[in-house]
Amino acid sequence: MATKVAKDETTDVLETLEPEVLEKTYEVGPYTFTQKPLSFFGKIEFFSVVGHAIEKVLSGGTTLNDLLDVPDYDPSTPLARTASEADVFVKAIASVVYNAPEILSELYCVILAVPRNVRAEVKEVIEENLTDEQGVEILDTFVEQNWEVMVDFFKEKMLPLATKIQEKVQG
Fold it and tell me: Which pLDDT tens digit goes with each residue over 80-139?
């Protein structure tokens, strides 16, 4: 949330500006989805699905080093560093999708806030009817809506909570 301070001759006025919430609507088969930023539970569920997929990949014999193996590059070159980071990201996603393909439709259900009681049917519909353009746009919108918020959520809220729990368990 950003704040803007406007001053006039007699008083200071504090105006709170809400960040623009990007919402998009998609028609897929008989369903209409409105994509919004993830809720508190949506964030938790998103990381649960990703965590389950990573666990499945690792249980299949892949190691974190294999998953995040980076080719050699010259770190002094920004383009090489960026390309290397992209290689790591693409390799990790490809490995997860290869070893846990069900993650895609489950993640789309989380991203689109599909109620759990209709997810099985919705997964079938989106797997058959989601266009390339819609699929990419949903992911792009997800990043725009949630990336910074999710990083802050886990870094600023969940990490201190996990540290506190760990200290209580050890003490």
Answer: 555 555 566 566 667 777 777 788 899 999 999 999 999 999 999 999 999 999 999 998
Q: Which residues pair with 14 in a beta bridge?
A: 5
CA–CA distance, 142 with 113 (Å, rounded to integer):
12
Residues 6+ apart with CB under 8 A from 18: 1
The answer to whether the CB of 31 falls within 8 A of the CB of 140 is no
Pairwise CA distance, residues 87 & 56, whole Å: 21
Give the C-alpha separation, 136 to 62, whole Å.
Answer: 27
Determine the Cα–Cα distance for residues 51 and 61; give it in Å rounded to an integer. Answer: 16
Cβ contact 139:97 at 8 Å = no
Strands 24-28 and 12-17 turn out to be: unpaired
User: What is the domain partition of the chain in residue ranges?
Assistant: 2-161
Strands 31-35 and 12-17: unpaired
Q: Tell me the pTM.
A: 0.65
Report the alpha-carbon distance of residue 108 to residue 135 in Å, rounded: 9
Instruction: Cite the beta strand spans of 85-154 per DSSP E.
Output: none
Helices (H) and strands (E) in the chain, counts: 7, 4
CA gap 50, 38 in Å, rounded: 15
Using an 8 Å Cβ cutoff, are 30 and 125 in contact? yes
